[in-house]
Design goal:
Largest sheet: 13 strands, mixed
Helix content: 10-25%
Oligomer: single chain
Protein name: Primosomal protein N' (Replication factor Y)-superfamily II helicase
Mean pLDDT: 81
Structural class: alpha+beta
Number of domains: 1
Number of strands: 18
Strand content: 35-45%
Keywords: Membrane, Transmembrane, Transmembrane helix
Organism: Gordonia malaquae NBRC 108250
Shape: flat
Number of helices: 7
Length: 407
């Protein structure tokens, strides 16, 4: 059986990540390409990590278009070299939850309360980490800062993997522009999101689950048949159902079922970003997060499975049972599921997040950081809707008038 993972980050109260300055356009890399891992600098007193450029000292950030650390000042690139011997390990859910209970008996451990302040080692300014935020930029000099105290905390789960961001800011903004411009009944003011809201890249915490389930069931199978009833003018055909008792055992094998581990998000919209290419995930290394926001988990894998993943597993099990019963109709009177295997993996998935406060309410629009797909919510313009209704009524009135004149 796979051993539980070591335990690092903690989730405080959630909230949408704060904005970061717009990233500069990538600059072509010069021939020299030192390794990205060599650029990490750890500040022991602050328990943070930064990435200064070895050529000019400016802060480095992960460039999605080139999949490397890049300096927007001098153009130097630093490739991210993965350990080819590293493997992504999946963990048994129950034994991991038992270990978490022993190390954090009071439940999900805190990462320092609602607010954690660190001193930027580049400019001396104060940077605030709110809630489950673990990577951000200094608001004064834009230096990317990562919290090592979260990743190294013994009562927290260690990250297993990451899907590196592939959609850069220009592509993300283009996707957002097209999405917003296609919302015909959104208020005109909402389309001025550049001045009303924040738009930023962020890595969200996810768990993926692997499940082997065996389910015994009993129920009824219904088959349609027709009979002729009545006589004379009242004779007609009726469809009836013949029911018979059935029972059986079905097996379900589910792999890489993704579930969001953060709170404060529009979960139905975020789920619509699926499917995620989980098979393309790589072992976690902090260089992929440099220059982008990142959040540790707010909910543990046991809670997320019970609340979010288990209903989806049950739905697949029920679908399998109905297929196994066959016929035209199915009734399930009993089902008992046991898990032959229940494993999970903790990873980061990339998004671009637009949060707009309009008319006193927050609206979230999310962009899949791998495909550019956009999902979100937007307000409705009462003025535009009323105008459309009036225009429709006028059009109907004109059509009726012309029809009557033609008659």
């Amino acid at each position: 059986m796979t051993q539980p993972p070591p335990i690092p980050p903690t989730g405080g109260p959630s909230g949408a990540p704060p904005p970061i300055p717009r990233a500069a356009a990538p600059v072509p890399a010069p021939p020299s390409t030192p390794n990205a891992a060599d650029r990490a600098q750890r500040q022991v007193t602050e328990q943070t990590r930064t990435y200064p450029c070895g050529n000019c000292g400016a802060p480095l950030a992960f460039v999605p278009e080139r999949q490397c650390l890049g300096c927007s000042s001098c153009g130097t690139s630093y490739p991210i070299e993965l350990d080819q011997s590293a493997r992504i390990v999946k963990h048994d859910l129950q034994s991991t939850m038992n270990q978490l209970a022993q190390r954090a008996p009071l439940g999900l451990a805190s990462i320092g309360g609602n607010e954690h302040v660190v001193t930027c080692q580049a400019c001396g300014g104060k940077t605030i980490f709110n809630g489950s935020l673990t990577a951000t930029r200094c608001p004064y000099c834009a230096t990317p800062i990562q919290r090592d105290d979260v990743q190294d905390a013994p009562e927290r789960l260690a990250l297993d993997a990451v899907l590196p961001l592939q959609v850069g800011e220009p592509q993300a903004r283009d996707s957002i522009e097209k999405w917003i411009n296609s919302r015909w009944f959104a208020p005109t003011e909402f389309k001025k999101y550049r001045t009303l809201g924040s738009f930023t890249s962020v890595y969200m915490s996810y768990y993926t689950y692997d499940v082997e389930a065996t389910t015994g069931y009993s129920g009824q199978r219904g088959d349609n048949y027709t009979v002729v009833v009545g006589s004379g003018d009242n004779q007609h055909t009726e469809t009836r159902i013949a029911w018979r008792s059935v029972s059986g055992v079905v097996h379900n094998s589910i792999r890489d079922l993704p579930e969001l581990a953060n709170t404060g998000m529009d979960e139905p919209r975020v789920r619509e970003l699926e499917p995620w290419p989980i098979q393309a995930a790589v072992p976690y290394t902090p260089e992929f997060v440099a220059g982008h926001l990142s959040r540790t988990y707010d909910r543990d894998p046991g809670d997320v499975f019970d609340r979010d993943a288990r209903p989806r597993v049950d739905a697949q099990v029920e679908s399998t049972i109905r297929y196994d019963i066959g016929g035209d109709h199915q009734r399930i009177s009993r089902k008992q599921t046991s898990f032959d295997m229940l494993q999970f993996m903790y990873l980061l998935l990339p998004m671009w997040l637009l949060t707009v406060n309009f008319d006193g309410k927050p609206f979230q629009v999310v962009v899949n950081g791998l495909t550019g797909e956009v999902q979100g919510q937007r307000p409705w313009s009462k003025v535009k809707i009323a105008a459309a209704v009036i225009a429709g009524l006028i059009l109907i009135g004109v059509i009726v008038f012309l029809y009557q004149r033609m008659r």
